[in-house]
Amino acid sequence: MVQQPSSAEFLALQQALEQAQRTVETLRGELRMTQAERDLLKERLNQFKRQLFAAKSEASSQQQRDMFFNEAESLGAHAEPAREEVEAEDVIEVAHYQRKKKPGRRPLDAALPREVIRHELPEDQRVCPHDGAELREIGVEASEQLDIIPQQVRVIRHERVKYACPCCDGALRLAPKPAQIIPKGLLSEGAVAWVVTAKYLDGLPLYRQSVLLGRFGGTDLSRSTLSATVVRVGQAVQPVINLMRDHLLDAPVVHGDETELQVLKEAGRKAQTKSYMWVQMSEGSCADGTGPPIRLFAYAPGRSTALAQPLYAGLRGGGALMTDGYEPYNAIAQTHGLVHLGCWAHARRYFNDALQALPKDRRGPDQLSARFIDLIGQLYRVEAQAKERGLGVQERHQLRQRDSVPVLTEIKALLVSHLHGVLPASLLGKALHYLSAQWSKLTRYVEDGRYPIDNNPCENAIRPFVVGRRYVQSVIMRSCRQPALLYAVSCRWRVRIIKVPAGTSTVRPSDGTACAGFPEGRWRLALAPSWRDQLRRSRGSLPGSRVRAITQ
Questions:
Q1: Cβ–Cβ < 8 Å for 450, 289
Q2: What are residue 302's phi and psi, to 5 degrees?
Q3: What would the pLDDT profile of 222-278 be if each residue is shown by its tens digit?
Q4: Element (H or E) spanning 40, and its range?
Q5: To the nearest whole percent, how much of the chain has pLDDT over 70?
Q6: Are the C-beta atoms of 234 and 263 separated by less than 8 Å?
Q7: Do 287 and 246 touch, CB atoms closer than 8 A?
Q8: Dist CA 456 CA 294 (whole Å)
């Protein structure tokens, strides 16, 4: 017969059982924490591996390929070489009916110069084989091909004619020489434009340009000579930058962003300290938004609110500011009374990172991050429809209210239902909390047809600078401001510089001082709607806008 435990023993066993249960619960909690930390670390590891080895593109299509070595093979496998452009009528006459001309490739640019080459029959072949009569010309069949003239280096010899009176010695005169960007400079305006464009737009270092110039025409120009030329040009274009800034500050919508820059020798700072290049841009400058696009860059040793405020000083109140979720932009928008817009591309990027961090077999459409990406894609499809139809401001606003607002409502409901059910430190949790924090800014674009959906144009404006940043570091802080100025005149199709008769207004720096290369009555900046055609016809002018730096 089993002996029953005493009350003291039963109480002790009961206490031991409760202690064991508490221990189990504690261990289970620690296990859950350990598993969560493990999952976070695995997610972070997958993210780092993707940053190092995977494609940087956020496109979900599997057709992306390496376009460095095998670009021609990849794109040309199912394509045909471009054929000659043959002039034809829009309507082709066929027996008993008319057939419209099939759409082909676009014609070559009409602004390009044409060289006509006539192909004629020899004299002995201009005879009719039937009756022997001489053949007469009745027309031509024209076709066009695009030709490229290789780079050529030439020397322009300026000869200033001297004049003197044959009767006395008191009337000696010398013909004046046209004003130059760099007085007594070795390079012409065309050569200076080539050097600046190649360095800041095409990412070609000066030492490579020196080698290219030597190969083109045997000219021996050292890297230091080209460097000095670039610095002088950077100082000379300051009046152009000031006027571009005036037009940008009046724009109804201004984009803003910043990117890292390393400066090796700056007083009081280590070489490893991060500096920043700030970019400001507008797709339509001037107060009515009909002016040409402008991109301005400015160097700053940091990215604090105190450093950002002077860059946006003078913004027109009542406009809109499109940025990412960086905190200093909130203070800028509040200070100037701007409508602060959020970037849907940034919001999508967080969800894309969360989806790509998962194993490949788990990246299905049922994942929460994939569902958000699909809904955001619907917003972009509405924007694509508006662009394809060429809708105006009012029509775009109506389309957004009809098609985009319901999608935003669905995104909001999905966000609220999952915001507090995901670990905040995970990539998906960060994406949800970013979307929640930026929601009011992200939804404002549907209130006005002029507002953009994202900040992609500003990020695209940074790309030429980022390409050049890969292989060069600024040595001193002063060398950072010259690139910021010259990016403003390195992008084609933005502004043009034209000569005007003496006596007209000239461009001056904001402090009222004169500037080398822009003497009184010789040059001015023209921001006209016809800037594209005018710039194509001009020769020797500085090409377009890209950047700006504050004069300090």
A1: yes
A2: -155, -170
A3: 888 888 888 888 888 888 888 888 888 889 999 999 888 777 777 778 877 888 888
A4: helix 7-53
A5: 74
A6: no
A7: no
A8: 15
- Identify the DSSP state of 470: T
Which residue reads 């929460």 in tokens? 368
Length of the chain: 552
Q: Which of 461, 411, 262, 440 is nearest to 339 (CA)?
A: 440
Angle at which helix 368-389 crosses helix 344-356, to 10 degrees, equals 140
Cα gap 196→234, rounded to integer Å: 9
| Cross-strand partners of 524 | 498
DSSP-derived letter for residue 90 is S
β-bridge mates for residue 253, sequence order: 320
Please state, in angstroms and rounded to a whole number, the distance separating the CA atoms of residues 543 and 491.
Answer: 6
Query: Where are the extended beta strands (E) located within 448-536?
Result: 474-476, 496-499, 523-526
Question: Among residues 246, 277, 259, 233, which one has the least CA distance to residue 543?
Answer: 233
Whether the CB-CB separation of 198 and 209 falls below 8 Å is answered with yes
Instruction: Say if CB 274 and CB 491 are below 8 A apart.
Output: no
pTM: 0.69
Quick one: pLDDT at residue 285?
A: 82
Q: Which two tokens stand for residue 440?
A: 């009011």
Residues 6+ apart with CB under 8 A from 196: 230, 233, 486, 489, 490, 542
- The 8-class DSSP code of residue 510 comes to T
Average pLDDT, the chain: 77
Identity of residue 172:
L
The two structure tokens encoding residue 345: 């591309």
First to last CA, the chain: 100
